[in-house]
Amino acid sequence: MLFDFLGLPVPAWSYSPFTVFADLDINISKGERVALVGRNGAGKSTLLNIIGGRLKPTAGHVQANGSIQALMEIGTGFHPEFTGRQNIFASLSYSGILGKQAQALADEIIDFSELRDFIDQPVKTYSAGMYARLAFSASTAIMPDILIIDEILGAGDAYFAAKSTERMRELTVEKGATVLFVSHDLAAVQRLCTRALWLEKGKIIMDDTPLAVSKAYFDAVMQQEEASLQEKYAAKLHEQAAWNKSVQGQYFTEELTILTISPYSSVDKAERFVFSSTDTVCLRIRVEINTYLEQIDALCVVYNTQGIIVSLVHGRQRDIAPGRADFYLTFETNPLRQGEYVCSVELSKEFDEAWNGEGKMPFLAHWDRCTSFLINENHFGKLDLGLVRIPASLTYSPHL
Hints:
Number of helices: 8
CATH superfamily of the largest domain: P-loop containing nucleotide triphosphate hydrolases
CATH architecture of the largest domain: 3-Layer(aba) Sandwich
Largest sheet: 6 strands, mixed
Strand content: 25-35%
Helix content: 25-40%
Oligomer: single chain
Order of helices and strands: HEHEHHHEHEHEEHEEEEEEEEE
Radius of gyration: 28 Å
C-alpha cells in the first residue's frame, strides 16, 4: 500500500482485523519435545513466531525460560556476495560466538555441510541444494535451551535430508533441548517428539501422544480429502461431457462411449475417493454401447503424483449387448501404499500385452488421467514403506 511505501502508519480502515488465537493456553515443561500439527492456516507458524519473539501478540503473554534458536527460515541473513565461510562466521557472530570458539564451530559446520571445496566461493554461485546444506549446517551448530523447528528437515538432496534428520534427532533426543516442532511429516513427528498438539483455526483440538494425535489428525484430513475429491469429481463430470463432444471419434468410437469413470467401493456399493490399504479398489466404468460386442477388455494404468506408472490393471468381459451398462474393474489385490494416484482407462476389443505395432493400440474408448483416488494406509511408523506393497511368504526347511 502507499502508506507502507511512504513509511507512514497504516490507518485502521485500510485492513480487516483477523484473530489467529482465542483463549489459547499451552504449558510446555523443560525437556519436552512438542509437535504442532494441523493444516495450513491453523496458526502453527504464527505461534512459533510469537514464542520466538519475531511477532508480538496483541493480547495475552508468552514466557520462555532460556535461550531460543528458531529454525524457520534457514539462511536468513546470508549475504549472496559473501563466501560460504564468511557467512558462517557472520551467522555465528549473530549468536555472540567469536574467536577460537567460532573457528572450531566453523570447521564443524563445513565438515557437516560437505562443501569444503566450495566454501570460499560466493554463495550466489551455490546451487539451491548447496545453499540449503550450508544454511542448515550453520543453523544447527549451536544448541539452545529451546529449539524451534518449522518444516526445514528436507534440506538439500535425499542424502542430506536423511543426514539432517539424524542431526535433529541427536540435538533433540540426546542433548535434551526443549523442542517445538512443526511438520506435515507425521513419521518425523514421532521420531523426534514426545507430545503433539493438533491446532485448527487457532484452537487446540487434541493434546496427546504423537501417535494418538497423528492418527486422529490423519483421519480428519482423509475425511476432508474425501469431501473435496467428491466435489471436484462432480465438477469434472460436466467438463468431461463437453470434452466428449469436442473429441468425437478421437478418443472413442461410434461403437462405445464412456459416460463416467469413478473409484468405487465394493463394500458399501458407492463412489469413494479415499481407500485404506486393506480395501478392495474398484473403478466403475459407465458406458453407452451402440452395437453388440463379442468382447471388451478394460485396461487401467495407475500413475503416482510424479507421473510414474505404478501398475497396469486388466480385466475382460464377453458377450456385451447394446445399451447402457456399468463395468467394474476390480483390483483383486491392493498393492498400493499410502499416497495419491491418478488413472487412465481404456476399453478395447482385445488387449495385447506384447503390442509392438505402429502408434497406439486400437481402442473403443479412452479417458486419459481421468480420475484420482487416495490410499490411506494408516501407517504412522518410522519406516518408509515405498510405493507398492508386495505380498510375500516365507517357507522353512530344516536340515535333517
